[in-house]
From TrEMBL:
This is Double-GTPase 2 domain-containing protein. The lineage of its organism: Bacteria, Bacillati, Actinomycetota, Actinomycetes, Propionibacteriales. Gene3D superfamilies: P-loop containing nucleotide triphosphate hydrolases. Residues 10-204 form the Double-GTPase domain. InterPro entries: DO-GTPase2 (IPR045528), P-loop_NTPase (IPR027417).
Length: 392
């Protein structure tokens, strides 16, 4: 959970075996380790597990220098924790001594094989349930559509897409009883399911709008069916976006004997989607009165961290936190006092910080600027037809 030191966001990546999950993760982490990014970026991305970081960086360098793809992982559910260490004053002080020294991205990688075939026995069935429980804290889920398989089924894309969505839907149906304690719907659950086209470099003429149209035309009913299954798992099922957001992903440009890792598409949107997209959507759902008490508590908890980080509405936050037992009655206070200010500050943080001397910038200001930079990244992604966010 998020603390008063780190803003923590979770993302879960779902895709069948061979859809590019490992390559995508390696491209994300490895590109952040490039000397130029380390030197010039507003933050440094550090793997909390050094061994994981070394393996991912090794995968990336293998692609970059030897055109070698990383080995596929099978039946292995892994969570990767990355710290985004913000640059600025007091850089040398311990994390615990500084307010909001970092953002944390937790990346959950769910084995594609568990969508495609039955488990081998009770032990594997138990591991599958535990793996899914581990990613319930995710704010965003990426559902990967394999660009190679779309090409293989050109003209009959629905054959592949229906199989993919049916496998995901059926897996969730099988997990339902194990995930719901006494049948009670889940408060914490990935509520934004983004449909992502992996290996998008194989389909250079398909922008995100065309991708959305392809999905809706070929498998609109299946998307609705998946949404129905997910809505049966969560409290406040109106606060759920399934197949309303789309993104193109390419981990590199692949050609015979060469992998050009610098030519990425959508990888740079992973952090903004994890950090900002949920905040935007939570605000929208709160204003539309789609949140019950339990889900509202979660929203207030996230808002508390961000508001404290960027120095907004601290008095309102304190009142809310003191009234957690009466949080339903406090939702109006969130809307009237906290969230409009929070949204406005995130949107205008960049402009407000232009006048701040960089040498005197605090970690609080750096976090505000980073969130604003992420918001801008999402806007640019839409302008380039790489990202398409839900309008509702």
């Amino acid at each position: 959970m998020a603390s008063n030191k780190v803003l923590e966001q979770h993302i879960a990546v779902f895709g069948e075996s061979g859809s590019g999950k490992t390559v995508m993760l390696s491209s994300f982490y490895g590109s952040e380790q490039e000397p130029q990014n380390i030197k010039e970026g507003a933050f440094n991305v550090v793997a909390e597990d050094a061994g994981q970081g070394t393996r991912l960086h090794q995968n990336y360098l293998g692609m970059k220098n030897s055109a070698t793809l990383p080995d596929a992982t099978k039946f292995t559910a892994t969570s990767y924790r990355f710290l985004l260490k913000l640059k600025g004053e007091s850089e040398s002080k311990p994390l615990k001594a500084k307010p909001f020294d970092a953002l944390r991205l937790v990346w959950h990688d769910y084995p594609g094989e568990w969508f495609e075939q039955d488990v081998s026995g009770p032990e594997e069935a138990s591991r599958r349930v535990e793996a899914f429980r581990a990613l319930l804290a995710s704010h965003v889920a990426l559902l990967l559509v394999d660009g190679q398989k779309l090409l293989d089924n050109a003209g009959q894309e629905e054959r592949y897409l229906k199989s993919l969505l049916s496998n995901v839907r059926n897996s969730l149906v099988l997990l339902r009883d194990d995930l719901l304690s006494e049948g009670k719907p889940l408060v914490t659950f990935p509520r934004i399911w983004v449909v992502a086209l992996s290996k998008s470099d194989l389909l250079p003429d398909l922008d995100v709008n065309g991708f959305k149209e392809l999905i809706i035309e070929k498998v609109g009913d299946e998307i609705a069916g998946l949404g129905g299954v997910l809505s049966g798992l969560v409290e406040s099922d109106g606060a759920l976006s399934v197949g309303e957001d789309f993104v193109l992903i390419s981990s590199a440009k692949f050609s015979p004997g060469a992998i050009e890792v610098a030519q990425r598409v959508g990888i740079d949107l992973v952090l903004p989607m994890a950090a900002v997209l949920p905040l935007e959507r939570h605000l929208r759902w709160a204003r539309a009165d789609k949140l019950t008490t339990g889900v509202a508590k979660k929203l207030v908890g996230n808002a508390e961290v961000v508001a404290a980080a960027i120095g907004v509405a601290s008095g309102v936050v304190a009142k809310l936190i003191s009234k957690k037992s009466k949080i339903a009655g406090a939702v109006g206070l969130v809307l009237s006092g906290l969230t409009p200010k929070l949204e406005d500050v995130i949107k205008s943080a960049g402009a407000k910080l232009e006048a701040v001397d960089a040498a005197a910038a605090t970690k609080r200001q750096n976090l505000a600027a980073t969130l604003d930079g992420f918001r801008i990244d999402l806007d640019v992604g839409e302008e380039k037809a790489v990202l398409l966010r839900s309008p509702g």
